[in-house]
Amino acid sequence: MKLLALFTTSLLLLTACKQKETADDWQNIYLSPEVMCGTVQFTDGCGPATDTLIRFGIALIHHMTYEDAGYTFGQVIKKDPDCFWGYWGKAMAYIHPLWPDMLTETEMESGLQLSQKALALAKNDKEKLYGAALNAFYEKSDKPKSERMVAFQQGWAKATAQLPDDPEAALFNGLFRLATVSPADKSFTVQREVGEMAEKYMATYPDHPGAFHYAIHAYDVPPLATRALAVARSYGKIAPEIPHALHMPSHIFTRLGYWPESIDWNARSAKAAIGLPYNGEVSPHLFHALDYEVYALLQQGDDARARELVKNTDTLKAKLHVAATTAYALAAMPARLELEDHQWKAAADLPMPDTSRFAWKKFPQWEALLFYGKGLGAARSGNTAVAEQSLDRLTTLQSQLGDAPPTKYWYDQMEAQKTTINAWMKYGAGQKDEALALMQKAADLEDATVKNPVSPGELLPARELLGDMLMEMGKSADALAAYEACLTTRPNRFNSLYGAGYAAEKSGDTKKMNSYYGQLLTVAPASTREQIDHAKKAMTPG
């Protein structure tokens, strides 16, 4: 896919959706209720002038197409200033429960005003319950996001209990249960319950966007991912013009190591996102899709295509929409290119974040990705000075973040990153036993939580790096166990498959060597990496 050409079309504001009436604050881009978004089961409203818009706006919220939803509900307010749903929907669109971003003070103040206005206009039990759930989030404006989300979820639980025949309330409650479950909970009980609830509604309403979307999020954990395979292959079909709906299947394909499908769906998502700029800015949905696509290409060993995608994003001159997904991708993609291919010196030389292009101060946890890439590359290439500088910067960024929810997850990830860099610095200094202990600690830290939805995967899994260290120490049997453990939760990773095959080869386990090398050749049939040549030569007949 020639993304450079697609970027050009984005500047021309070509959109996959129908363009209608001029929008004074939307660069003449107007998402039409005629676009395919699936069907919500919502029969309430404020009258013929706004009911279609309300249903469309709710569908967009289910798709997590939040800015477009906010615009849509803004149109509802313009058409009917006394409509509860306009104010409720616009305030709902500010809340991104599964995204790692934070509301600004302005958004919180606006959301509170909208929420209170909606409550004042509520005329029936449903409106009062929906309004109360929303207000539970905004009235705690001085509390951390995690606490506000718990209050929000409790409000939706009450709405669900009192409106047992309302699928929208049930699905919103399911979403906020996912948003409030502990990332350290490996029972996945909540995920199972939410996924099964979503499947129930899919059976009854086969094109409901929330049912499909939340089922994928619920099952986006290693033990449950296979449950969502059919859902993943269907979701984008009910909303073929919505970037996030086209991207979401790749969460499951990534979990299962289905790289061709992940590449395909993310390419579709990127193309759709290019056609739907955010108020003239580049959509964060573009970068989210590209990060997942780059990750999948690297697992196929297709370094050239991955580098082309990243290069084209670097040449994009349009203004970037400041969002968490954009920040993550901008930091992760260039680091992935070098780390996945074990180009340690190139990783150490990664450029500093471009503050003129993006507001990095808002995203210390993802600025940290670049310094982790630099630090690991430096530690592995013997550049002690850069490794130490990177560690210092990681420590500073970690302290800025703090270890309280909802940023504790990223705080812990940064701790694993620092430990990994220290491990390889110790290894380079000849302190191998201490290095191994630190690398084991980093792997355990990383494995203690579940991958965040913003990421297709770690820049390099710590357990895979543990395998690499064990191999360098001549402990091939232990290395094999580490690679196999990594593959259990991250199937079909190029480096883990090769590592497992090589460790088996050195351990004299011909059966496992053939198995892992065979899997590698299936996963990366066109790769030109040197590991492929080695695997082909090492495999034995039969």
> What does the largest sheet look like?
none
CATH superfamily of one domain: Tetratricopeptide repeat domain
Straight-line distance between termini = 39 Å
Highest-level CATH class of one domain:
Mainly Alpha
Coarse morphology: globular
Mean pLDDT equals 90
CATH architecture of one domain: Alpha Horseshoe
Rg, Å, rounded:
24 Å
Can you tell me the CATH topology of one domain? Serine Threonine Protein Phosphatase 5, Tetratricopeptide repeat
Query: Percent range for helical residues?
Result: 55-70%
Task: Write the H/E string, N to C.
Answer: HHHHHHHHHHHHHHHHHHHHHHHHHHH
Tell me the number of helical segments per DSSP (H or I, 4 or more residues long).
Answer: 27
| Number of separate strands | 0
The chain-level structural class is mainly alpha
Strand % is under 5%
Uncertain spans: 1-30
Features:
single chain; 542 residues; mainly alpha; Serine Threonine Protein Phosphatase 5, Tetratricopeptide repeat; 27 helices; disordered N terminus
Structural commentary:
Helix 2 (51-62) runs parallel beside helix 10 (209-218), helix 4 packs parallel to helix 6 (125-138) and helix 23 runs antiparallel to helix 24. The protein is mainly alpha-helical. The protein has helices at 3-11, 51-62, 66-79, 84-92, 105-121, 125-138, 145-162, 167-180, 189-204, 209-218, 229-238, 243-247, 249-256, 259-274, 284-299, 303-314, 324-340, 344-348, 364-380, 384-401, 408-428, 432-447, 462-472, 476-489, 494-507, 510-523, 530-538. It is 66% helix and 0% strand. Among the domains are: 26-180, Serine Threonine Protein Phosphatase 5, Tetratricopeptide repeat (Alpha Horseshoe), CATH 1.25.40; 461-542, Serine Threonine Protein Phosphatase 5, Tetratricopeptide repeat (Alpha Horseshoe), CATH 1.25.40. The protein is built from 27 helices and no strands. The chain starts with a helix and ends with a helix.
